[in-house]
Fold:
Amino acid sequence: MLGASRICIVTPAPLRSRHGNRLTALRWARLLRELGHSVVVAQSYENQRCDVLVALHARRSAASIERFGQRRPRAPLVVALTGTDVYADRHDDDLISRSLELATACVVLQPLALDQLPERVRAKTTVIHQSASAPPSTGPGRGPGFTAVVLAHLREVKDPKLAAEAVRLLPSRSAVRVVHLGAALDDGMEEWARAETSRNPRYEWRGDVPRWRAMRVLARSRVMVLTSKAEGGANAVSEALAGRVPVLSSRVDGSVGILGDDYPGYFETGQADQLATLLQRVEVDAGFYDLLRRKCDALRPLVSPDRERRAWAELLAAL
Structure:
């Protein structure tokens, strides 16, 4: 593809929401505009004039993908697979299979996702790591205490109670506290989070906050904790790497594909005791904390916006 194009990015995440898919769509729109393209972001494709459709979420954007495929059968159609496409719904959802069949090209957010795809789909799939910019100020916060931040909406797949359970297991002398930022999206989660905040002195849920505020909290945290049961490639990991904040993560492909199999900051999914052990070690073992920081610093170029912009330029050129 040569020259500027009209590109429509479809994401099922509602307008002005802070869902990860919406943030990804807006970031891609900015990068594509920087490449000279005209870009609109919509919740669905409704026959808008465009040369290329980029659809986030193979299943939830399936109707848009089908509509574009019928209306513009020869036009490039890029399907970006989310974590639920790859790890939760992939093997039993005909809508996903149909979306992948219609796609001219597919995008995944970390290389381990390729292993989950049929060979015919893998051949037309590109890995594009999600980028992030460093927060205005970086480095651990001043003053006493040790803040571990969780940047995740309260949904079952994110295992939102795990960090609170982990800090309850810490010894009384520990200064670790968890600050959890994210909307309560599943039934009962808001009630649980408010109750946990009131009864657990090591846990504070602050709800859904603007991104600039979340990035400020991240910048002043000692570590970022990701407790998900499944991830396609979390924005939060990219944001932590960009902000030079070490990551403690459940051992899921979405993190291993970014951080590497030998990264020392993993705990097994759902294991609050293992997360507690890591938090305590980071608090008291300066050598271990420095190791995590060095590992994350080495990975920082992976989440450069320039790198992500080049990846999109190469993909569009190949189309």
User: Anything to note?
Assistant: The chain has a mean pLDDT of 92.
